[in-house]
């Protein structure tokens, strides 16, 4: 387990940083394209996904706005969203910042081995209402554990920490 | 033609991803610095540039808010903007997200060869009015085909898909 | 001294670009986590830090909203902020775009040598008020000179150029 801090990119560090950025780019593109059925594919079969608020996260409260620990539960969650949002007229745009790589370590994987990477990435989501106005919908940070294994980079864990405690509207889409 | 999907960065993939991000950084800096006369230099001589809305793009409508297929037409477009915006008091700030690399392929180029890269990149533009307030001006995504050829990375094609259909004010600057 | 312009990433260029992005990610994470006491550690002992507005920067006016030329002055600045903001109820989220690398050159460093990198990076800061609304707090660009020296990437100079001239509230945090 290595603390990478502000260390500049080495060859390996460069590839890992870019791999994380690339995976994040495809993740938010999937959601903003409204291809939610493909969203669980960004996670490992057994995983952890949770949306919470900065306030709850700071106080160590376990309850979140959305929660899952298998890919199947993520799929169920998408089905529920689809049923609830039949008349959805909004779209969203995620803008994610540079990922901060916090730790890299060797790990077990289904094919025998890989790298686990802990990273934190800030995000901003803008909501667009039909032909109407745009507004800031959410901001926060992704606390991630990625499994990089040969040709794939999958999320073992993503905790979405939203900055604001105004949370009721947050249930309309994955973050 | 290779579908790169969520595949983590290989040596080549890393360089291409970073090259695209770097080219995008210089592109938006050029516009936000109001050096519009240099903006056509980011494109190949024969090119495609178009601004459209998500709604029109989804319905396959060809009409766009701005359109050009040579570098000369881009230059003409800048001249028109300069004449129309004599009393311009606004400035803009583009924030672009991580590029999603969709495909890479070998291609013909003026010097004999190169790599063509298809990518999609989300963007957000904030408008700043004199010493007044800031507001969200536009969000959307760049659908790009880049020609990477030795020391240059140029746009063969950029389709700017704006999320909102509120489009009249969008004509004040390139995106 | 090399002008790198829109040149695509070479091996060295790739590592430098990613190193800058990585350092910026940790920098904004430190501020948004409210770990301001660690913020001076991102600078060299002798440094230059200044917040100014686009208008003042364009007119060459030296006065800025915040100014320091040693790490010690940055620490003093944090102490002053801590005393002034006892009842602080706000949080902030920085989103930074892709860095544009402008120049790279060999340089002197305390350990004998290193690379100095000039870069410009756009930023956006969102302010979150308790359980209330979010608003756009600031946008602008970082004009940076980084010293990359073995395992560290430190700021020799950062000039923060805010787009808006509405500046009174900007003093509540470093940018």
Task: Summarize this structure as a short list of keywords or feature phrases.
homotrimer; 175 residues; alpha+beta; Nuclear Transport Factor 2, Chain: A; eight-stranded mixed β-sheet; 8 strands; 43% strand; globular; disordered N terminus
Write up this protein.
The structure is a homotrimer of 175-residue chains. In chain A, 23% of the residues lie in helices and 43% in strands. The first copy, chain A, is of the alpha+beta class. Chain A has one domain (2-88, 99-119, 142-172): Nuclear Transport Factor 2, Chain: A (Roll), CATH 3.10.450. The longest helix of chain A has 22 residues, at 11-32. The radius of gyration of chain A is 16 Å and the shape is globular. In chain A, strands 1, 2, 3, 4, 5, 6, 7 and 8 form an eight-stranded mixed β-sheet that branches. The two termini of chain A are 28 Å apart. Mean pLDDT of chain A is 85; it is low at 1-8. Chains in contact: A-B, A-C, B-C. The B-C interface holds B 14-15, 18-19, 21-26, 28-29, 32, 42, 91, 93-96, 124, 126, 128, 130-136, 148, 151-154 and C 5-11, 13-14, 17-18, 54-55, 95-101, 120-124, 136, 139-141, 163-166.
């Amino acid at each position: 387990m290595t603390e990478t801090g502000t260390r500049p990119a080495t060859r390996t560090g460069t590839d890992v940083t870019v791999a994380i950025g690339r995976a994040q780019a495809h993740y938010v593109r999937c959601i903003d394209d409204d291809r939610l059925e493909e969203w669980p594919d960004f996670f490992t079969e057994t995983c952890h996904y949770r949306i919470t608020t900065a306030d709850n996260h700071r106080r160590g409260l376990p309850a979140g706005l959305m929660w899952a620990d298998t890919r199947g539960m993520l799929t169920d969650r998408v089905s529920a969203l689809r049923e609830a949002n039949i008349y959805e007229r909004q779209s969203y745009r995620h803008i994610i910042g540079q990922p901060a790589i916090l730790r890299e370590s060797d790990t077990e994987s289904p094919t025998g081995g890989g790298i686990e990477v802990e990273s934190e990435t800030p995000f901003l989501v803008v909501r667009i209402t039909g032909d109407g106005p745009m507004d800031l919908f959410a901001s926060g940070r992704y606390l991630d554990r990625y499994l990089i294994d040969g040709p794939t980079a999958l999320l073992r864990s993503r905790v979405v920490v939203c900055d604001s405690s105004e949370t009721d509207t947050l249930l309309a889409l994955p973050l």
